[in-house]
Amino acid sequence: MGLFDYVKCEVGLPDGKANDCEFQTKDFDCPYMETYTITAQGRLVHNAVRYDIDPPDKRTGSIDMNFHGYLNFYGGDDGEWREFNAKFTDGQLIEIVKIPDEPAMTPDEQELHDTLAAVLRAIEEQNPVIRQGSFDLPFRNYEAVVKARELMKLRSADRE
Is there a single domain that holds both residue 92 and residue 141? Predict the structure, then answer.
């Protein structure tokens, strides 16, 4: 956890969904919950706020960042995760690419996951030391650990 900055996007996003929400990024050196906008012209601007003391006044303005590199931003409304990389060259937006969602587990991966989870639950139930966060396995659980390792090796061999 930590601070982040907001990113608004005025250009269309590659997933075709509305871009009227504020995204987040941690790609800037000092994220202080500032707001940046990718403008319709393809520039990254910092929506700066300045306070004058004499006379007391709040001024806003946009500072062109002339950003060069990749900007990762993410978030979304309604609990739907959306993540993008925007490529800028000499301050000009070149492209925005959607970061794909993690693929769902295959049935074999799900079976392995469930088996390992069951083995770990059984080990934890048999040994209160493990429930307290220690990783010292008693000898009687050795067979369960060996079985879990064999399953992982089989799954690893299937991928090759």
Answer: no
